[in-house]
Amino acid sequence: MNLDDYSLLRAAEIAVGVRAGQVSADAVVKASFDRACDIGAGSDNLNIVLAAADEAGRAECESLTEKRNSGKDLGLLAGVPVVIKDNIASLGLPTTCGSKILEGYVSPFEATVVTRLRSHGAIVVAKTNMDEFAMGSSTENSAFGPTRNPVDVRCVPGGSSGGSAAAVAAGITPIALGSETGGSVRQPAAFCGVVGVKPTYGRVSRYGLVAFASSLDQIGVLGRTVDDAALGLEVIAGFDRLDSTSSDADVPIYRMSALGVPAPEARNPDTELLRIGRSAVPLPPPPDSKTLEGVVIGKPKEYFPDSLDASVRDVCERSLEKFREMGAVVRDISLARSPLAIPVYYIIAPAEASSNLARFDGVRYGLRVDSPLGLKGMYEETRSRGFGAEVTRRILLGTYVLSAGYYDAYYKKAQAVRRLIAEDFTAAFSSGVNAIFTPTTPTPAFHIGAISDPYEMYLNDIFTVTANLAGVPAMSVPIGRVRRLPVGGQIICAHFDEYTMFRVAYALEAALGAEAHQ
């Protein structure tokens, strides 16, 4: 194995090489650190890594070598370097959530997903930058400065898992973990030209994930290829008694790489049996339209984009034509309540955030700013200095919609519409559609600082929030470029049907080939 091409190696290739003794885990991890150092040098510092696990990573490599010498199983990810979003707890490394209020905080326990990675031989090499407490779509909200897109350093990498997506795109690791609340894995994956997967809610344990909105949060995987992401999800998925929301549903084999262990039976997806639902662009409802129990949706242009970027639409249509050429059936479907997803999401998510973030008060852990005004003054000073503008905005919004007199008008109504959005997906899949295809984002990556209006920023998630609200699995795969910037296509499947989702993604990746990055 030639590590001169490390930044192009897939996770399966590294694991096979380490298992066979063709390369040492230490050499692979050194290549990862070297790559990170190269990227961090110079004026174009991408600001991807918040904390590196130099000594711990090398210690894990030594342990892996000892296991190999004694003939023990090294695991599916033997020697594969992985980076972790900085809101996922890990022993020995800070977990800051990109916030001053947790700067330097080291968790006394580790997230289940990290434990599972290590048990399969993966080497955690770093924690990555992110929007503060996962609130953002650009990784500009980090208290430690913005991350830059490796494809074009003038642009954002997306968010909130921008550091993880950028790490994969820059060749630091073939696999990264991120988290999703409204698209925070898929949107940066699309912006950076990599694969991003949000599994079904409950498929992956949330134990050790710092909560933003508990009914929406889900840990996801980013990879250089579909197979990288499939391998990563296969390792971290499954029931966890430490997470009351995790499911005990069986975890199929998602990967198509053999890895020296039994491989999936279906090596090649039977695309002639696929039925792809083409979801129309979620345009705004007409003014004064009544959509639920007489509620009027007014001023729609404040909440919805006028249209999808025409070039992005063309790239998506090319992907649908590839499906047709493979023999799949493509037909239009209706997700009637999708236009309501953004306002629904920005009621429910901030409401849950206002409750979850109440624990950061300066008393138990993290930043503490004492005040002559006593306990109340300490609370106010700590939270004012510790939280950034976007986090403060969402806490205030969430507190407002949960307050007396507004709970029924906003939060309760949003939950009712959320149920209807989920029913739209159930109806679509019950009609015989195997998967739904949409753009991942309405535009390619934008320049750092280009969007200052919070509402305009929120619209970046218009295609992704529906899957979080419904709890269904979804992923973004590279499908082309517009103005030299990556474009992602989104594949959505029914609850716990990640197997089909990956088969569709494998087929599209193979059909597009080099076109996916052109």
Q: Quick recap of the structure?
A:
By secondary structure, the protein is of the alpha/beta class. It has 15 helices and 13 strands.
Quick tags:
518 residues, alpha/beta, Amidase signature (AS) enzymes, 2 domains, eleven-stranded mixed sheet, two-stranded antiparallel ribbon, 15 helices, 13 strands, 14% strand
Would you write up a description of this structure?
- The chain has about 525 residues and is of the alpha/beta class.
- It has two domains: about 5-235, Amidase signature (AS) enzymes; about 270-345 and about 405-500 and about 505-515, Amidase signature (AS) enzymes, CATH 3.90.1300.
- Helix content is about 35%, strand content about 15%.
- Strand 12 and strand 13 (about 485-490) form a beta hairpin.
- Helix 9 packs across helix 11 (about 390-400) and helix 9 (about 340-355) packs across helix 12.
- The protein is globular.
- The two termini are about 30 Å apart.
- The relative contact order is 0.13.
Q: Work out the count of structural domains.
A: 2
SS element count, helices? 15
The SS-based structural class is alpha/beta
Low-confidence stretches: 259-267, 283-306
Number of strands: 13
Helix content: 25-40%
Sheet-strand content, in percent, reads 5-15%
What letter string, H or E per element, gives the SSE order? HHEHEHEHEHEEHEEEHEHHHHEHHEEH
> Which oligomeric state applies?
single chain
Predict the CATH topology of the largest domain.
Answer: Amidase signature (AS) enzymes
CATH class of the largest domain: Alpha Beta
* First-residue to last-residue Cα separation: 28 Å
Query: Order of strands across the biggest sheet?
Result: 1-3-2-4-6-5-12-13-11-7-10
Outline: globular
- Tell me the CATH architecture of the largest domain: Alpha-Beta Complex
Mean pLDDT metric? 90
Let me know the largest β-sheet.
11 strands, mixed
Mind telling me the C-alpha Rg? 22 Å
